[in-house]
């Protein structure tokens, strides 16, 4: 049970970190950077894959 919580928590934290970095980047340079955008995409993909595997494992 804890394993699935960690596999959901870590990608969610990566997405939140990406959004925080994007906000800081936009405030500093008036444009989003590539690193925050990639963190958001990677974290969201990771979260989606983890949830799909959890559903498949449960079924």
From TrEMBL:
Superkingdom of this protein's organism: Bacteria
Keywords: Membrane, Transmembrane, Transmembrane helix
Organism: Arthrobacter cheniae
Transmembrane portions of the chain: 34-52
Name of this protein: Uncharacterized protein
């Amino acid at each position: 049970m804890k394993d699935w919580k960690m596999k959901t928590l870590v990608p969610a934290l990566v997405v939140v970190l990406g959004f925080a970095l994007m906000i800081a980047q936009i405030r500093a340079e008036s444009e989003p950077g590539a690193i925050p955008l990639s963190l958001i995409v990677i974290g969201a993909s990771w979260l989606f894959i983890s949830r799909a595997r959890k559903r498949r494992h449960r079924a």
